[in-house]
Amino acid sequence: MDQRSGQKRAVDYLYPTIEPFDQRVIEVSDGHRVFVEQCGNPQGVPVLVLHGGPGGGCSPAMRRYFDPSHYRVVLFDQRGCGRSRPHASVEANTTWHLLDDIETIRNLLEIDQFVLFGGSWGATLALIYAIKFPERVSAMVLRGVFLMTQAELDWFYGGGAGAFYPELWQRFLAPIPDDAPTRPIDAYHRLLFSGNLAEEIRAGRAWSGWENALASVHGDGTMMDGPAEYARAFARLENHYFVNGGFLESDGWILANAPAIAHIPATIVQGRFDMICPPTAAWKLARLLPKARLHMVPMAGHALSEPGISEALVHAMNNLRG
């Protein structure tokens, strides 16, 4: 218990840190090498953890949402980020490549079905994978739903969220030169893929800082400079996916194809004050999934680490134990 606030911290809801029983780098297609790890019970119920971004990578903290005696937890760093290589590469890096990688991992590990656990872009990827391979998914636990629509991108990179944080929005726009494309997302694309490493790092830190500053409802709005390599990879991959509409066939593709996953049990955990992925996406999705339960966390934003979000996610995974 935090003695100053009298409130529990996110860590109070989590399982103790567990060490992986398996870590490996696997060769996928087009020269990419993907880092994969497993922890928990090797004979347990398989859970696939899908990190956000794109470009966020996995961390040891992500192992702590699961009862290690019950679950076999599989985590992997998606193409171009984390411990996967080549780092920050967008070549042969699309949503469909990531689905192929998941299938490669599933077959390699001899897993028939996963529980999918993902937040933000991880929720997007979980939904797309489930739509394409519904027979491979036993349940879904999703956080901070992002449906990869133009409306969502316009909100966060077109000034919607900036109306609440005008001083941070101006800092986000500051690196954009006068002769850049009108849309900030397109202007950043030019900066992040300029071929000038120093410029790409500066732009990557500004891009990442904008998102990180708005992640938590309890944050003070500080745009901190992250490690150069991480910020550049994170920003390049996000921007690459977003300027290409997530490589989906049409805007609104996920909701249009939601009937394909109507039979899959789902728990959706959504921060009421999520500035990055506003609650309307989670609400729309829940309305189309008869077996979904939407848990709107009253005083929470987007971050996985917020106490209410962590509590709800651990509770959801515990409920799946039966």
What does the main sheet amount to? 8 strands, mixed
Gap from first CA to last CA: 29 Å
Strand order of the largest sheet: 1-2-4-3-5-6-7-8
Record field, number of beta strands: 8
The helix-and-strand class reads alpha/beta
CATH class of the largest domain, anyone?
Alpha Beta
Number of helices: 10
Give an overview in words.
- This protein is an alpha/beta fold and 322 residues long.
- The protein folds into 2 domains: 10-149 and 247-319, Alpha/Beta hydrolase fold, catalytic domain (Rossmann fold, 3-Layer(aba) Sandwich); 151-246, no CATH class.
- It contains 10 helices and 8 strands.
- The protein has helices spanning 95-108, 121-132, 150-157, 166-173, 184-192, 197-213, 228-243, 253-256, 280-288, 307-319; strands at residues 22-27, 33-40, 45-50, 71-76, 114-119, 137-143, 266-271, 292-297.
- The chain has an 8-stranded mixed β-sheet with strand order 1-2-4-3-5-6-7-8, sandwiched between helices.
- A hairpin with a 5-residue loop joins β1 and β2 (33-40).
- Mean pLDDT is 95; it is low at 1-5.
